[in-house]
Amino acid sequence: MEHLLKLLDMSGEEIIEVLNLADQLKYETKHGIEHPHLKGKCLGMIFEKSSTRTRVSFEVGINQLGGYAVVLSSEGSQIGRGEPVQDTARVLSRYVDGIMIRTFSQQEVEDLAKYGSVPVINGLTDFCHPCQVLADLMTIREFKGSLDGLKMCFIGDGNNMMNSLVVGGLKVGMAVSVACPEGYRPPKEILDFAKNYDCFELTDDPMQAAKNADVVITDVWTSMGQEEERQKREAAFKGYCVNKELMAQAKPDAMVQHCLPAHRGEEITEEIFEQNAQHIFEEAENRLHAQKAVMVKTMAK
Ligand code: CP
Ligand code: NVA
């Protein structure tokens, strides 16, 4: 694995291999078995958007693998003053062994990989959130025993999370149903990919999407960078809340995933969130294990 730029670049088998390694690293971490696969290696982390989970789980993860991290923010670096990504890529490649980046444009991440000479890991763009979805798939498999043949539904915005869940879910053999209002559907690139799968459904009816689902997933209605659209979005997503009525459509043992941070009372009720807190916080923990697996696969050479 050279980079992790988006799940569209990976095969289903490659995704499963990352999940298998993540499970193994989780086991070793829980049993005090050290695994210094990246001893002495440096991960450069670039944040052009806020983060709690991604920031902490990558830094703790590289440390557990025997390496260390250097963190750059756009404001505190020349990136915020307009230094071109082509130059940042070539400079950082001379100092660090891998780069994790969280930014707005997917093109910037692709360019970082194109112009740099070290592995690049996408820690969220407007287009996708592959690390999060690897952690989600890991969590679903942990609780359900397998992924193949399960039905996942995503209720809400056709955003980075929906995009990666559609691609990741279909690639590992899940049926994927997404419900979003018109005007908030996933981009053409994702729909073009998904239309090759009979088990993909796009609807504007959340109850329909949730029918017989094994896993119900949602995310905020207003993502980072869209703050000015908040009011308009709140109106557009009325009726897209994961609540008791929606959960009644899913299988009785359906689990809920949320990448966090969550807005209780908007995309999910307090009641449903707290009933599913065990699965949701395991999902947050699994960011650590899944990303360690990604770092090992890309940086241990
Ligand atoms: N889910 C997620 O990526 O969280 P952070 O924004 O806190 O990193
Ligand atoms: N869709 C959200 C995910 C945050 C982890 C955002 O992009 O803000």
TrEMBL record:
HAMAP family: OTCase (MF_01109). Keywords: Cytoplasm, Transferase. Belongs to the aspartate/ornithine carbamoyltransferase superfamily. OTCase family. The keyword Magnesium does not apply. GO terms for cellular component: cytoplasm. Pfam families: OTCace, OTCace_N. It is found in: Cytoplasm. The lineage of its organism: Bacteria, Bacillati, Bacillota, Clostridia, Eubacteriales. PROSITE patterns: CARBAMOYLTRANSFERASE (PS00097). One of its GO terms (biological process) is L-arginine biosynthetic process via ornithine. Its EC number is 2.1.3.3. Residues 148-296 form the Aspartate/ornithine carbamoyltransferase Asp/Orn-binding domain. Pathway: Amino-acid biosynthesis; L-arginine biosynthesis; L-arginine from L-ornithine and carbamoyl phosphate: step 1/3. GO terms for molecular function: amino acid binding; ornithine carbamoyltransferase activity. This is Ornithine carbamoyltransferase. NCBIfam families: orni_carb_tr, PRK00779.1. Residues 3-142 form the Aspartate/ornithine carbamoyltransferase carbamoyl-P binding domain. It catalyses: carbamoyl phosphate + L-ornithine = L-citrulline + phosphate + H(+). It is an enzyme of class 2 (transferase). Carbamoyl phosphate binds at residues 51-54, 78, 102, 129-132, 259-260, 287. It comes from Acutalibacter muris. Its main location: cytoplasm. The gene is argF. L-ornithine binds at residues 160, 219, 223-224.
